[in-house]
Structures are given as C-alpha cells and as structure tokens.
Amino acid sequence: MRRSWETIRDLPAPYLLATAVLAIHLLVALTGPLWAPFDPVKLSAGPPFTSPSPDHLFGTDNFGRDVFSRVVHGERVVLLLAFSASGLAVLVGASLGVILAYLRNWVDESAMRVVDLLLTIPPLILSLLLLSALGSGYVIMISTVAFFFALRVLTVIRAAALNVVTEDFVTAARLRGESAWSVARREVLPNVMSTVLVEFSLRTGYAVLFIGGLSFLGFGAAPPTPEWGLMISEARPYVTNAPWIVLAPSLALASLVVSLSLFTEAISEALGLGSSRVRDV
Amino acid sequence: MTEALLEVDNIDITYGGRSLFRRRPALPTVQGASLSVRRSETVALVGESGSGKTTIARVVAGLHRPSRGHVRFEGVDITNLVGDRSRSLHRQIQYVFQNPDASLNPRRRVSQILGRPLEHFFEMRGADRARRVEELLAAVHLPPGYASRFPTQLSGGERQRVAIARALAAKPKLIVCDEVVSALDVSVQANILTLLAEVQASEGIAYLFITHDLAVVRWIAHHVYVLYLGRILEGGTPAEIFAPPYQPYTAMLLESVPEPDPSGPLLRAEDPTTESSVPPQPEGCPFTPRCPHRLDQICEREPPPHQRLGDTHEIWCQIPAGELARRQSVVVS
C-alpha cells in the first residue's frame, strides 16, 4: 500500500491536479449542504437571472434560485447516483466474472455468448426504452445503468481472472475440495482486486456522464432536484441571455468526469495495470 | 504392509476431445500404465518432459479421468474427478507442485495459506489454528515469525517448505510430489529432499515422486518406474534400475547423466546416428525410433512385453533380459 502511495506521488502533474480536483468534488459532496449559502430549491433567493456576483457566485436562474447552492447540493446527488450504479455494476460484474473464469465450462461459454449479444445493444437507447416503459425512478435508473456497466465489468474482470485461475494455487484449492465460491473469493478475487478498483473508478466516471445524459433527456432526476444534467437541460432556453445557468453545472460535470478519468489512469498506473484508455466505453 | 496404498491399474490417459464449442482430436498421452505405492514408501516416476509422468500424477490427484483402467486408494476405486471425491480422500492425498511461486497465492499470508486446510479439513480456528500453523512451520524448519509473511517475502526454498507444510497440514497418507525440487538451486534441493525424508520417517507418509532427475531418484526412492512417451518401460528398486540389465531406454537415460570422472568406466552410446525415421505405431514401443537394439518389424507394431526379472524388477522390452545384459556389460557407478 505504501509503495502504491509513493508511486502516486511520483506521477505526472496532470494526475496530481486531477486527484486534487476529485478530492474537492468529494469534499463538496460530503460537506456542501452544510455551508451552501441558500436552499437549492428555494424560489426567489434573489431576482431571477441575476448575473454572478458576491451574493450569488454563479448567479440565479429563471426562478431566482441560487445556482451556486444548486451546484453544490447537486454534487451529492450526482455522486451518489454514479457511485450506486458503478458500485452495483462492479459488485455484480466482478462476482460473475470471477466465477465464470473459474468454471471455464459450458456455463461460462454460454454465458459469455449471451454477454456478447447484450454488449451489441446501445446502452443509451435501451435505457431510454426501459425507463419510459418502467417509469423513471432512481432505483430503476440505477439498476438499468448498473446492468449495462456490469456487462463490461464482467468481460474485463473475467479476462483478468482467467490469468489467475490457471495458477497452481487455484488447483491446490480445487484439490482440497473447496467450493467454486470459496475459490473465487479466497484465491482469485484478491489477485484481481487492483483491476476491480480501476474498473470501479472508471465506471463511476462513465456513470456520471451517462446518468447526467439520462437526466438531461428527462429520464433521470425529476425537477426540482438540483441534478446537473437536469439543470443543464432546464437552463437551455436561457443560454444566450443567462449563460451562467448552463455553464455552472456543465463545468462542474466536466471537471468531475475529467478528474475521475485521469484519477483512474493514475491508479491504474500506480497499480501496474497500464493505461485504461484503451478500454471500451 | 503388503497391501498397496495406491494402485494405478493399467490406465490409458487421453487429452483433448470435445466440449460445447470445441472439437479437438483426442491425443493419447499415457498407455497401459500400472504402478503401486505402498505405505511410507517413496515411488519415483522418472521420464523426460512429455513422457506423461505429470499426467499420471494428475489422474491420481483427480484432475483428469483416465480413458481406461482404474486407480485404487487403500483398495477403494478412486478413478473419479476431484469434485466427486470425499473430503477424507481430498485430505489423504496431497499434492506439492513444481513451482512454489505459482502454488502459493501471492495475496495471502503464510498463516492463511497453512490455516486454510486446517480450517477446511479439521475445522480448526483461532488459537488452535495458530498453534498448529506454528507446529507446521517448525516441522519444515521455518521460524514461527514467518506466519505473518507473504510468499513474495520468502526465498524459493522457503516457499517450497511452506508448500510442503500445507500438504502436511492435511495429515495425508500420500503426497504427490510433482518435480518439487527442479525449480530450486541444487543446494536447496538437497535440503528439501532431506526434509521430505525426515517427514516420511516421522509421519509415515508415502510419496509419489515425479522427477526427471536420476540423481534425485537414487537418493530418495524405494522404487522407481521409468516412463517414456506414455509407457512405463522399467520398474524396480534403484539398485536394480542402476545396474544391468537395463531396458534400452533406461540405459540411454543413464548414459546422458554427465560423468564427473572422465577416466572412469563409461557406458558408451551404441551408435547415436541409428535413429529410425519410422514413427512407431500407436501400439508399438515408443522408444523404437531411438532404440539401438530395435527389432524393426516387431518393436514398431507390438506393445513391448512384460518381463519379470525378480520380486521387484520388471522391464518391458522385446529383447530378452539375458540378451540385454550380455550387450550392456558396463556399469554406471
């Protein structure tokens, strides 16, 4: 662990900067609501369309709500949704990936062909279809996103685990008569843990973007939630007159996604896994 | 003591075959192999790479099913895969691998590596388990402090000791040792072999010892089987194997051992250029193309017949043992 930390410390400046930006995002998510100057849903916190000023750092929107407070409160919503989706995806994807790699039998072969098939479906289109059919609650949205991400996590973790399951220590566990679950958990999983961590970080970045996109299209968070994708969508009509209403959540979203992506890159290198950029989206 | 602990009875082993998405030709790797291991005895299986010695070990361990023949342990048929075996059988047959770098999980501490079989087989936990881990470390001459180390913090020889301790944790009756010293330095090899002999003396464990190293065989084995391309060609005590008459392949193996004293007696290779280009028939003796004594018509087509030369010594060859002895007068000392 200490060696990993030292490797992180010696990483190029962009990675360090990204890590710092990400830390700020996390801090805002944790503490933001404690110090945000206004209630995010309070109407007429100031006159509508006030341009940025010391009172309203990012100005106010068409209802006079304080944009800065909304962005700060939104951080928690955005990260919670993204972490739930990527966490669920990694939990399901990694478990199945490790088990399938260990089994390497007809179950694995058949399951992977089904996964290949599902991977050909464009996630956004099917998500929209599912959400419009099932209604757009958070639980359904997170499950849908997690489902599509889990497929991708599964293929990555299975590939990593395939290198481990042929090792003699796995055979030794089999010879002991250990169950597949026990071998997967005790012998295989600890050896693919770094890949799992990188996948979690990577998928969180994609989840932020994906969920933002769903909200922007009206299938995610519901008004008046200060979710950034939704805020951008709602503020579109005023982009020429009051660009700050669009710009503030856009920049927050962009800096979060970019810093997450660079951070993923950084830990991937620190853990000796090479670049994650070559992975699929 | 007459009853065999492990009996391998006339097995054929075939690799390849079909699965849901694959169809490969089946390749025979071992034909008609029989051997037996008695309690507290070391039986060595010698052969070059590709001779099928590890394959036989894997069948004994239950990682492969032979396509013909039976494996019996204490008289009970165990010709099944590891998943179908009982927990007590898992416990009684242990396996030590060639490369301790690969056989110990790099992410688990020595205490966990040794503790897991204790938990799995004897439901030992907590202080009991920790105490037993220390005993096991002591049995393989490692300090108790090693319990908290990771395998990467140990040397190759120390890792192999941990692997042996893991096998001992199960209190087995048989340990399959698959080339356990060939990945180690020569000085470390001797230590490990001494340790194995010591453990055998105190615990009465039998070894099925897979190796390509004749020096090791001579040192540790009570009984030796010589394997060439999937067929056992000679069996006997080391004294019998290392003295004429030799099965022709055994003779060639012994010749290939470098002789430290060039002035000493030397068994000459008859004529290394007589290698036949005719591949043997599947049924024939696999050594035919390289054999200096081959009988062209018979050796290629017929399985080499069994000749019993004594209580323990047996060879498989078309040429009568007396004739072989006459041709091979020189002893490798």
What does this protein look like?
The complex is a heterodimer of chains A (281) and B (333). Chain A is elongated, with a radius of gyration of 22 Å. With 281 residues, chain A is an all-alpha fold. In chain A, helix 3 (67-103) runs parallel beside helix 10 (244-270). Chain A has one domain (2-270): MetI-like fold (Orthogonal Bundle), CATH 1.10.3720. Chain A has helices spanning 2-9, 13-35, 67-103, 106-119, 123-134, 138-165, 168-175, 180-216, 228-235, 244-270. Chain A starts with a helix and ends in an 11-residue tail after the last helix. Chain A has 10 helices and no strands. Chain B has 2 domains: 4-227, 3-Layer(aba) Sandwich (Rossmann fold); 244-313 and 322-327, no CATH class. Chain B has helices at residues 53-61, 87-92, 100-103, 110-122, 126-139, 156-169, 186-203, 214-220, 238-241, 248-255, 296-301, 321-327, and strands at residues 4-19, 22-38, 42-46, 68-73, 76-77, 93-96, 174-178, 206-211, 223-228, 231-236, 306-308, 314-316. The radius of gyration of chain B is 21 Å and the shape is globular. Chain A binds chain B through residues 105-106, 109-110, 167-169, 171-178, 186-187, 190-191, 193, and chain B through 19-21, 61-63, 82-83, 85, 87, 90, 94-95, 97, 99, 102-108, 116-117, 120-121, 166, 170.
